[in-house]
Amino acid sequence: MTCLKTDVPAPEELDIPALKAKYLAERDKRLRREGGEQYVRPTGDFSDNYAHDPFTPVAERAPLVEDIDVAILGAGFSGILAGYHLRQQGVTNVRNIDHAGGFGGVWYWNRYPGVQCDNDAYCYLPLLEETGFMPSKKFSDGWEIQAYCQKMAEDFDLADKALFHTLVEGITWDEGLKRWHVRTNRGDDIRARFVVMAGGVMNMPKLPGIPGIHDFKGKMFHTSRWEHDFTGGSWTAPVLEKLKDKRVAIVGTGATSVQAVPYLGKYAKQLYVLQRTPSNIDERPNPPTDPDWAASLQPGWQQERMANFHRGAQQFFLPGEPDQICDIWTEISRNLNLELEADGFPALDIGQIMARRDVVDFQVMERLRRRVDAIVEDRETAESLKPWFRFMCKRPLSNNEYYPTFNQPNVTLIDVSSTQGVERMTEKGFVADGVEYEVDLMIFASGFEVTSDLRRRWGIATVEGENGLSIYDHWENGPATLHGVTTDKFPGMFYMGYIQGATNSSTTEQFGRQAEHLAFMIGETIRRGADKFCATAEGVAGYVAHCRENEVDMSEFQQGCTPSYFNNEGDKELKWALFKGYLPGWDAWRDMLADWRKSPDLPGVAFEAREAVN
User: Fold this and answer.
1) Keywords, A to Z (predicted)?
2) pLDDT digits (tens, 9 = 90+) for 550-562
3) pTM recorded for the entire structure
């Protein structure tokens, strides 16, 4: 295991009870009574800014009134994978519909300086063997990922059919037509036999609800609507030369900010980084792809690598299994495996293994805190940048330039944890701890609606199934599905994302398996000559009961975490938790779905045949 870290502290160096108390104290400092409601949807001028696409001009077109087989709402990875698997089932009369100006989803919108994938690209980019594409390096740049999305769309005959700059405003089931009416802001009425909700996980930007946000007279934008005209530079060449005489503030210190801050610090006259909770950040090994390694790969290599990633990131490696990923995501499993190997892989039950894994968690987090001390020169700043929480309480990150940026004289970290966020904004800037800071540009790296209520995340006013039932009422207490992809009373409607299924550490692998399953359901409906497909209430109830019986109770861990999108800002009732543990595991869930597809009666769904024509 050549990627083992040599600076991991030994367990006896740590006072784990004291660390647990420290973690809880740091969590409590940041808990806000309003939870996820501290973030707001864009309104007024901001609403126009979010609806506006600063990257691609809007092409005028006439409204469409048409009948199609499948409307895929989304053109990111989930929408593209849905299109690919439908094509595998022989279903090609489909349209991707997206409010962006092209394919890519979050990789279309995120064009901030330094944007990269923070997962191993050889796992994250799907269907590499099928397309013959190979990422240029371990962590792909955003522009490369978006270009790959476009390539996939073209390879799978999706590109010419897509509707872009098109915002879905309502979806209603028409029992007479046995179709869905998909209505948009372009005046379209697209009548689809099936609808796939493929908006992904990070499709709706959110703003911090800072008092006085509309009073600020300077420039403001969210990182997913980056305005290069104001900052200078471009997506592929992030030279922000127009900021040389500008005072800039960025709100947030998650994945986006960690990538953008080094560029802002390099070019801005003054940069203020407003931090409520620091991230856990390791070094980033990002070598270019070795052509000899790529040439040596055998068929099936990507699925094998993803399985290795899944075990390393979420569970533990098999005895003797090498770590193919070798980055921050797999370090705990990597270290644990080394310990177990030294002990001769003793026969331990799951509780004993998890107890040992917990100790390694504390060791790795202490190593990351010591990394801050080794890089950041100012002691007060270094202390503020240290992460005091369990490893997976926030998204683990890697970056080589973020911490050194705080050694520059023009970069100031402002910790706003004492006021649980930015105190307020003024015409000239922002206030923190009673001090007003004047800035020319305010950037919000405040993320997306990830685990908030469904209506906020989808942003679609009306989604009505049989008898006018709203999906928001049907799922008022959280999702109730069959296999995580469909539900009763909503015929031929399918869902993608982290919705009531076993979760895999690679988002795109999760999407791919959902797409494979729902595409089979659609293909089977067409093959049977059926007019209508729907999950039964009994089928949904049975699957919900199965999930509850096999759910790993993560509540203690999640509630002990610092507020983040993983726990919907400290929410105790996680209706839309990003990760719901499934005790049998990812492979068992995939096998269960594959066995269902092979069964002759397909329990839990009903097909309604077309009526005979006299």
Assistant:
1) FAD, Flavoprotein, Monooxygenase, NADP, Oxidoreductase
2) 887 776 777 778 7
3) 0.93
